[in-house]
Design a protein that fits this description.
Blueprint (H helix, E strand, L loop, with lengths): L3 H6 L10 H26 L4 H10 L4 H13 L5 H15 L4 H10 L4 H11 L2 H17 L4 H10 L4 H11 L4
Helix pairs in contact: 2-4, 3-4, 5-7, 6-7, 8-10, 9-10
Length: about 180
């Protein structure tokens, strides 16, 4: 049974005959509006990659059609922008949890960013100086936590920092080791 609320949400005129196609169309419009509303709520909290947003909407059981249309509309409205997301993600990550380029790229791809765009964002943001500062912060943080020598080297390399830079960093931090 359709409630009065359903009638107004689905734009059905009370008392008029409605065929199955009209109901399907009204239900699809309603689902699209709900998907859009949920997507805006999610991106109001923080920026998202399109793929990441699609995954979240799919978990909420929206149809592929509603998800696709929502992502398209948000992209057209410039509320969703994978390039902007990727660059900001790299900046934030370097600031809070410093990592090297391979790990940053992998994290972006895991969030649904295309490999080429991930490569481009990382290379635009991470130059030699940025990488050195990120390595400094990561090494100091890990060393303060008691990691030295081989454990520190392994931890920094797992975070995607290049081996030669890691060796040099350890020599600077612990010249007597």
């Amino acid at each position: 049974m359709i409630s009065g609320d359903d009638v107004s949400r689905l734009a059905i005129v009370e008392g008029e005959a409605t065929d199955g196609k009209a109901l399907e169309t009204a239900a699809a419009r309603h689902e699209l509006a709900l998907a859009y509303e949920k997507a805006v709520e999610l991106i109001a909290r923080r920026d998202h990659a399109a793929g990441e947003l699609e995954t979240k909407l799919a978990k909420r059981r929206f149809s592929r059609e509603a998800i696709g249309a929502t992502v398209h509309q948000l992209t057209e409205e410039r509320l969703l922008d994978d390039r902007r997301f990727a660059e900001e993600f790299v900046r934030r990550r370097l600031e809070r949890h410093p990592e090297g380029p391979p790990v940053l790229r992998a994290r972006l791809v895991a969030k649904g960013i295309e490999r080429e765009l991930a490569d481009s964002a990382v290379s635009r943001i991470v130059d030699d100086e940025v990488l050195r500062r990120a390595l400094d912060r990561a090494a100091e943080k890990l060393a303060a936590g008691g990691r030295r020598g081989e454990k520190l080297r392994a931890a920094l390399q797992r975070r995607g920092f290049p081996a030669p830079a890691v060796r040099e960093q350890i020599r600077r931090l612990f010249p007597d080791d």
